[in-house]
Sequence to fold (254 residues):
Amino acid sequence: MGHIGSGLNASRPRLAEKAVKSDSIRSRVLSPSITAVGASMPLPRVILADDHTILLEALRKLLEPHCEIVGTVADGRTLLKTAPELKPDVIVSDISMPLINGLDTWARLKEVLPRMKLVFLTMNEDPDLAVEALRCGASGYLLRTSAVKELLRAIQLALKGKSYVTPQMARRMQKPFNKNPNNGPKARAKILTARQREVMQLLAGGKFMREVASVLNVTKRTVAYHKYHIMRMLNLKTNADFIRFAIESRILKP
Fold:
């Protein structure tokens, strides 16, 4: 069976079911018989979300024998529109999504689809980001170097209401779990509306105001107003402050 990754890496890290108990779970070996999710049940309905077309195509081919792939999307805005229409059981998504990042997309989706599960599949090895993903209700956090059978295992556990995290991430996530989540830029960013977060992500990501206006179907003046209001609310003085805050608050994922 193939591997997940930009170059479909050969590394096969085992996964831990609980992020905070990686040392006790690390020694478990996934059974070779786990090649399908719910083999005696209807296949789970899955949406794949990633802006890398080659990866999406590879994932579809690898997962199709075990899941019903009901859709693929390349950005957060499309996922927000598509998921309520297709009503998947599980979404497998990158975090660094264009237009709206994976975490903000998930925060909005779970309000309308509370029973849907999300497994993040990403290149990002930042333990703080992984902790934030789990705190937001994600069921899994996998790296693209993971084996396909491990992704299938994560989907299986998500459907059972359990979590699944790569062991190398789980070991590094214990300290972030103990941090106070109410301090710093991430906490300050909570005062922003969903539209303000979209504007900040797009502008901080390098788009011009006219491009942001086109994406959001608003006027350039509206975008400028949102930016002014964001900077005033957060006491940001310069464009550099604006971009730095977007990165530090995880609105813009590096």
